[in-house]
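Record YkoP-like domain-containing protein, 184 aa.
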Amino acid sequence: MKLYIISAWSILDPVYYTFTRLQYLKQTEKKKTIFRVRLTRYKGREVVLSDGTIIKKNDTLVKIHLHNVQLLKELYNINNDIKRAVVVYKKIKESLPYLASYVEQHKKKEQIKGIIGITMLNRGSERLGFESFSITSRLYIWFKQLALFPIFLISSSNPARQKNKSPNYLFMSTKSLLGKYGKV
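=>
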């Protein structure tokens, strides 16, 4: 059943990509990044990151989206949730230098305050440099849970045993991103 869902998703994904203004990061042939990105204006509550960066309403951020179809295809034959988590962690870590390069080369680099993602997969994110913040709007939490639920179902080896997690914002300031993953 999961294979059919992934196949259908693979067909629908290019349509989704077209309507969301997402962009692929520049990459080498050997390394495929797991991110698709777009610039966005932040609409949430004010957030202060550990390096002192203040993210306010209407600040420019790079919104990161995991390329779910690509990721699910890679995870399909892995039956252990811990091994799956390790694969996702490694894929994200390998993609972050490409994200740093995207920000470094962007024409609006000076305006970009940081990066943002919304996910239910936030365990271990702090080791990558992300900071997790709860979403305060109950309506937005409900909407994101609904949107992320299919991914949750087909990415878990045993979804019935998993707790339904709340989605969180993941932030990283541009300063932290470039300091940790940018060109040396």
